[in-house]
Amino acid sequence: METIAMPAINFTAVMPETILSVFAMVLLLVNVFVPTQQKAYLGYLSVIGIIVSAVSVFNGWDAPRSLQEGFNGSVLQDNFALFFKGIFLLSSALVILISDHYMKREECNHGELYPLILLATAGMMLMASGTDLMTIFLGLEVMSVCLYVLAGFNRDNLKSNEAGLKYFLLGAFSTGFLLYGMALTYGATGSTKIAKIAEAAQSGLVTANPIFLVGMLLIAVGFSFKIAAAPFHMWTPDVYEGAPTPLTAFMSAGPKAAGFAAFIRVLVFAFPSLMVDWIGLLWILAVLTMTVGNIIALSQDNIKRMLAYSSIAHAGYALVGFAAGNAEGAAGILFYMLSYAFMNIGAFAVIVLIGKKGEANNNVSDYAGLGFRRPVLALCMSIFLFSLAGMPPTAGFIGKFYLFSAAIKSGYIWLAIIGVLNSAASVYYYLRVMVFMYMKDPTEEFDWVKVSPAIALCLLISVAGALIPGVVPSYLLNLAQKAVLF
Amino acid sequence: MNQMPALLSIITFLPLIGVILLFFINKNSHAVLRGFTLAVSLIVFLVSLPLVTGFQNNAEFQFVERIPWIAAGPFQMNYHVGIDGISLWLVILTTFIMPIAILSTWTAVEVKVKEYMICLLLLEVGMLGAFISLDLFLFYIFWEVMLIPMYFIIGIWGGKNKIYAAVKFFIYTMVGSLLMLVALVVLYFLGMKAGYTNFSLLNFYSLSIDPAIQTWLFLAFALAFAIKVPMFPLHTWLPDAHTEAPTAGSVILAAVLLKMGTYGFVRFAIPLFPTAMTQFTPLIATLSVIGIIYAALVAMVQEDVKKLVAYSSVAHLGFVMLGVFSLTQQGIAGGILQMLNHGVSTGALFLIVGFIYERRHTRLITDFGGLAKQMPVFATIFMIITLSSIGLPGTNGFVGEFLILIGSFESSLRWYTVIATSGVILSAVYMLWMYQRVMFGELTNPKNQVLKDLNVREVVIMVPLVILVFVMGVYPRPFIDKMTPSIENLIQQVKQKQVAANQSVPVMPQMQMPAVAPQAVTPAEVK
Questions:
Q1: Are B182 and A372 an interchain contact pair (Cβ–Cβ within 8 Å)?
Q2: How do residues B456-479 score in pLDDT, each as one tens digit?
Q3: In the list A238, B162, B187, B326, which could disulfide-bond B411, CB 3.0-4.6 Å?
Q4: What pLDDT, in 10s, does the model give residues A397-420?
């Protein structure tokens, strides 16, 4: 009587993604009936979707294993995935809050924006909870395709078009690496399931197989591209500069975190037998990424481009925690990605406000005198910049402290030293913005800067997120620690 | 102990409450802003006085507060504060100098007054916090937090080269302190191996660390502190920062911020890494002596009065370092006393430079001459402070320098002391020469013929400093008595660990109190 056992489908495990996708579909339909000038309502609706999804994320925390696993072991919504899902939801919500203002100003107020952000977020979530290389790949593609469109969203702007095309071409190229790596891994182990790969790799025969090693390397290259680690960072500056500002903020926070989530999951679980190899690889990647990002950022005049390079450097700091190869390092990445979402999106929110139509007024020198014309806005910006620079008492400092400490704990003292020296170099370009804001005389009155309630809310949340964990970080750090107790 | 609970926290965070209240004051009512800030700083000073009266003359940390703060993963940080005889006076120096600095801004800062006051009070929080922290992580936080307001003070209200000076100041200090952070974490993990699970300084004191590791850790800590002191050749940020900073900024920078460096050596680098300290004493003594002589020579040829005073700071702190590294009772007592003296007299010198700059908008020595006729009160005060800076007997400068030289002469640093003594003469040369060129001679410049003497406010600023110059010069005993037990304890602790390291016997925890305290030599007896 027994027939083929039905694979255990467990929708609880993909509930947050499902909610977002449903909202995205509904929004696409609603969009047709909403007049151009009122697309903001779509934004409100999508924030509601995000909140509903967040509720299901909170409910999933510490759930029994049977509820976490789904689709025959292809997804696993454990605390690790949930923490990341929280980061994704937070960054997409903050970005949606600043989008409307920007899109109205740039006159590209198309309603598709919000469903695309939601779908990209759903893709990231799938990446974080995927335990099968195919699931991860699917998630990554859902995310990436949405992002290609989003990068080129301002279709009347040449730079935005360039960003979209560049991101698409290079993204497709890197996906090729990733997929080839997955195929080789499958060839060497006979499975795409992470658990099975690790199982197969227990036999020395598989581990010694060069195909297996090459597979791991290609996968690492693919993910390095997604997190914009040097030397796979070439696309970042152009894409970040050209893409609409809110979406630059989005790309630097959410997808980067998603890349890390999948990267950690795959390397730690599928390739524990090659740990010595990939730790060495990450060590080099971390040093290169931090140094390249910071050094080039030093000479940038466009603030978006500067933050793009700085975002490369920040991926490098997170890689330091990854290279540490211990639980503190992984928890440090989680904490850092969360605080980075707050401080970076916050900084971009200020950029959106200061900018003028056609992506004008985005140079560091355009901030001259902001500190005494718009003191509150400048104060917010200073908090974000100090947090990015890793000055106490901000979340950025605690995050870096934790990442570098993890490296020291594993004995990589030189890595930590290179990290802090990089961090000292980065102070220069963050200070430069403050030099203009506070120490130069204003050339403009900044009378076009109108802080809408949505942006004010975004700034408020970001300031709180950049400051409170800097003073009382215990709660979030413990959550992160718990999330990496796989 | 019947000490007021949480007194240290109240002192430290009162200025922060002041900052929050400042936000609600209209930015155009300058008088209210200044008056309020002055009131806050005066209250902080008054509240800090019970620290002196309530302080028991022993080596224990007092007014201790300890509250769990961060507990995550392998880390445990406490809000752990307390003072001993060494930090007591530095806390008082800070709370004492702040009202004076604020009072000096009355006419000096006319724009962005509100922001200036906010920066000053924030700076006070950072400085006080750094002096009272007994948890290394907490210390690091305050140490870094201090940077931000000072950066803005130099960068916003500074002179024409302000941005260069501010950024240089920030980056210099940041590089040093970040390496210290790495050393701090390494130290923490070493402590963890010995069973300690927090950043408490007292735990680390009882740790015996492998000499090879000590060397590296000492270097990292010493770099951060040496930049702050600043020691030759890391002093290049100081003349820039001082010259560009507004008067109040220079006063605080000289009086308190530089002391962070020397305090860091006394509190952290030396007792934590005694073996490495022995190893590096010749190097540090050499650099100190070079600093003393070099800075004096450079000061001599300065055309800008403020730059001259800035270089004299480098020389004075060279003396402090020499005294501290002699590791003798008199040397360290002299060093700490000299830290206070330098705070008083160099702070006063910067105020004096500020007074004439406000009147003439120039600081070039050649623009002056013969001011004594026009400004007799100013001339008198300037003379007293100049003599105190040179270290004339009867003024505070003498006691400090004398103790330092005695202490280091009796230690292994004898020959360094001999050379350093010539620095005393050089300081007389450049200070008196400068005084002569500015104050005496013919009153030729017509712009100087209409200068007004000090007004009441300026006299009020200077009087407490002048009184202190004499009090500390004639009767320094109360100052020294309070710090003696702590210094003895420090020396005992370091020597014991050095001996133990030589015998390579692991030192076991806790040696808080010295068994028999050797009789301290106070300057009263010396005379």
A1: no
A2: 888 888 999 999 999 988 898 888
A3: B326
A4: 999 999 999 999 998 999 999 999
Tell me which residue of A113, A139, A173 sits closest to A261, measured CA to CA. A139
State how far residue A409 is from chain B, nearest Cα, in angstroms.
7
**Contact A137/B at CB under 8 A:** no
Q: Which chain B residue shows the shortest CA-CA distance from A401?
A: B181
The residue ranges of every structural domain in chain A are 11-483
Domain parsing of chain B, residue ranges: 273-498
List pLDDT tens digits, range B135-194: 999 999 999 999 899 999 988 888 888 888 888 888 888 888 898 999 999 988 888 888
The predicted pLDDT at position A1 comes to 53
**What residues in A contact B69, CB-CB < 8 Å?**
472, 474
Closest Cα in chain B, distance from residue A114 (Å)? 37
Q: How far is A259 from chain B (nearest CA, A)?
A: 24
Contact (CB<8Å) A435/B75 = no
Note the ipTM here. 0.89
Q: Considering only A206-215, A261-270, B65-74, B517-526, which range has the smallest mean pLDDT?
A: B517-526
